[in-house]
């Protein structure tokens, strides 16, 4: 039976997209700038799969030779967020971006407060760590959850786990999700935190939970409807609001995600495993930590070298990303970038991929591989 792994390295872009100037990201290059700023970085496996070739393709340079099983993809959808990128990988191209806010309208906030029985503090744009420095103490004293946003289409609610129990925070976010649908907000995110070791320090916990819009039908639905099992690893279930996912394994870190992939890959003989490794984006991209990002890539590279030996000749493995988050760039937002795509071993590793004009080529590849009705958009990579 066919067996496939689609692995998304969250935010690991490889050079600004053709329309990056429209997003203020002309010149951004997550992988390229990490390699430049951390010259001691060691990525032997990714380089052997064609990392340098992908960087050259993205830069519209003339790479030497025609390496197989590696290329780059350009996002067609409007936006540069997690939901948009993942949905396009699954075959949904968005013509208009999700809405973003610097503060949420009173009408929306009051509706959530009324139905959830709470009153918020905040309602400002901020990074996840900065908002705790600004409002963590006030939250502890008042018990009122912190409402904030970022440059993405997200409404985030933060609360200390000892002040607002997790289930209460999740229920609050479900209420927010209901009201956010008509405002075209991509995700509502529960952001629990605890007290750190230093005086006055607050630390976010791994108990984050995302509540996304339900997407239009995706390739995941097509596979599930054809009785091909789809297993989500990491935040995949959340990104697709469970639609088309038969089984889910949430993870708390890249390391946890890689262990889960190993376990599932060893035990599953068929179906799709769709995984996301989030630490690149969450811990290092948004925090503009190039050295931390580089180390996370090295750890992944080491794991990948061992994983490659488990790929059967008839397996399909696709490794790619959903957007960029250049740690050398200004601000703390995602960056509009092309993404690399690697097909190591198994089916498709001898294909010449080149530069692709849509992430939806991944969806077309999956339908071709599993032998279901061809996807309406995208062209197969294999």
Write the layout of secondary structure elements.
Elements: E1 3-9, H1 30-37, H2 44-49, H3 51-58, E2 70-73, H4 82-89, H5 106-116, E3 121-125, H6 128-142, E4 146-149, E5 154-160, H7 166-180, E6 187-195, E7 202-204, E8 209-212, H8 219-225, E9 230-233, H9 236-239, E10 247-249, H10 254-267, E11 271-277, H11 279-285, H12 290-307, E12 316-320, E13 339-342, E14 354-356, H13 361-370
| Low-confidence blocks of residues | none
* First and last CA, distance: 18 Å
Strand content: 15-25%
Q: Report the order of strands and helices.
A: EHHHEHHEHEEHEEEHEHEHEHHEEEH
Task: Please give the radius of gyration in angstroms.
Answer: 20 Å
Number of domains: 2
The major beta sheet can be summarized as:
6 strands, mixed
Broad shape: globular
In total, the number of strands is 14
Average of the residue pLDDT scores: 94
Could you provide a short overview of the structure?
The chain has helices spanning 30-37, 44-49, 51-58, 82-89, 106-116, 128-142, 166-180, 219-225, 236-239, 254-267, 279-285, 290-307, 361-370, and strands spanning 3-9, 70-73, 121-125, 146-149, 154-160, 187-195, 202-204, 209-212, 230-233, 247-249, 271-277, 316-320, 339-342, 354-356. The chain has 382 residues and is α/β, with parallel strands linked by helices. The protein has 2 domains: 3-96 and 214-370, 3-Layer(aba) Sandwich (Alkaline Phosphatase, subunit A); 106-212, Phosphopentomutase (Alpha-Beta Plaits, 2-Layer Sandwich).
